[in-house]
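Team,

Forwarding the record for the chain on the shared tracking sheet. I've put the sequence and predicted structure together so nobody has to dig through attachments.
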Amino acid sequence: MTEDGLDWDDVSWWALNLLHGIDLPVGESGGYLHDDEQVGEWLAELRKRRTM
Protein backbone atom coordinates (compact mmCIF):
# COMPACT_ATOMS: atom_id res chain seq x y z
CA MET A 1 0.00 0.00 0.00
CA THR A 2 1.33 3.44 -0.87
CA GLU A 3 0.91 6.75 0.91
CA ASP A 4 -1.99 7.64 -1.36
CA GLY A 5 -3.85 4.50 -0.31
CA LEU A 6 -3.52 2.75 -3.67
CA ASP A 7 -2.43 -0.86 -3.81
CA TRP A 8 -0.33 -1.41 -6.95
CA ASP A 9 0.27 -4.86 -8.43
CA ASP A 10 3.65 -6.01 -9.72
CA VAL A 11 2.82 -5.39 -13.38
CA SER A 12 1.73 -1.83 -12.64
CA TRP A 13 4.96 -1.17 -10.74
CA TRP A 14 6.97 -2.65 -13.62
CA ALA A 15 5.25 -0.32 -16.10
CA LEU A 16 5.57 2.73 -13.87
CA ASN A 17 9.28 2.15 -13.29
CA LEU A 18 9.87 1.55 -16.98
CA LEU A 19 7.95 4.59 -18.20
CA HIS A 20 9.17 7.05 -15.57
CA GLY A 21 10.92 9.81 -17.51
CA ILE A 22 9.86 8.50 -20.91
CA ASP A 23 9.38 12.06 -22.14
CA LEU A 24 12.96 13.13 -21.43
CA PRO A 25 14.37 15.04 -24.40
CA VAL A 26 17.66 13.92 -25.93
CA GLY A 27 18.79 17.44 -26.54
CA GLU A 28 17.94 20.38 -28.69
CA SER A 29 17.02 18.09 -31.60
CA GLY A 30 13.48 17.76 -30.27
CA GLY A 31 13.77 13.99 -30.03
CA TYR A 32 13.17 11.87 -26.98
CA LEU A 33 15.38 9.48 -25.07
CA HIS A 34 13.26 6.51 -26.20
CA ASP A 35 11.97 6.22 -29.75
CA ASP A 36 8.54 5.04 -30.90
CA GLU A 37 9.83 1.55 -31.64
CA GLN A 38 11.09 1.08 -28.07
CA VAL A 39 7.86 2.42 -26.60
CA GLY A 40 5.88 0.07 -28.86
CA GLU A 41 7.93 -2.87 -27.60
CA TRP A 42 7.20 -1.87 -24.01
CA LEU A 43 3.49 -1.62 -24.80
CA ALA A 44 3.53 -5.12 -26.29
CA GLU A 45 5.33 -6.43 -23.19
CA LEU A 46 2.81 -4.72 -20.90
CA ARG A 47 -0.10 -6.28 -22.78
CA LYS A 48 1.59 -9.67 -22.55
CA ARG A 49 2.15 -9.31 -18.80
CA ARG A 50 -1.43 -8.19 -18.24
CA THR A 51 -2.76 -11.43 -19.75
CA MET A 52 -0.61 -13.68 -17.51
